[in-house]
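User: My instructor asked us to take a sequence, write out its structure as tokens, and then describe one feature of it. I'm not sure where to start. Here is the sequence I was given:
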Amino acid sequence: MKKIASILILVFAFTLTTQAQRTGERQKFTAEQHAALAVKKMTLILDLSEKQQNQIRPLIGAQAANKKAAMLKGDTGENLIGLLERRLDAVVYRAKLSTTIFSARQLINHGHVKVNGKKVNIGSYVLKEEDTIEIRDKSKQLAFIDIALANKERETPEYIQLDEKNKKVKFVRTPKFEEVPYPVVMEPNLVIEYYSR
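Assistant: Let's start with the prediction itself. The structure tokens for your sequence are:
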């Protein structure tokens, strides 16, 4: 019995010292790594499927946008929607240059998109009003872009001007909540309430 107690004490002391060492060597995580950790925590708590995890992952990235939206003047819900819809991946998707938001991110990450004449490969790049987005000359012949443009399921919103022939997009202005064509009923106030805890 004494041996078991001494072994447990040694194991407990070892775990405490390793935890103390780990806290001294804090790692710097990127936003994507923080989002992945948060998804793992939510998966364990809520027992989410893979599909549900993929749907939640962009929302967790929205936590940073929520903090920015809360700092801006005006309605926090409107500000959050405005910040999310100014992202480059969202504008590429809304302009019908890709069929899904994930393929829009891939299109950007692979360097097929230019903003104001400069190559940008970051999907979370925040656009300003009157910015122009275009597909690189070498990438204009990609078949999936033509397929996405030919798709009649979605319309291009009013705050985006699309030149289908040259595959150019102009981000005219930050949209209001009512102008964004969400396929489901969105309640940004619930998202803000969730992240404000």
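For the description part of your assignment, you could build on this observation: The helical segments are 2-24, 31-46, 50-71, 76-85, 88-94, 101-109, 143-150, 188-195. Try explaining in your own words what that tells you about the chain.
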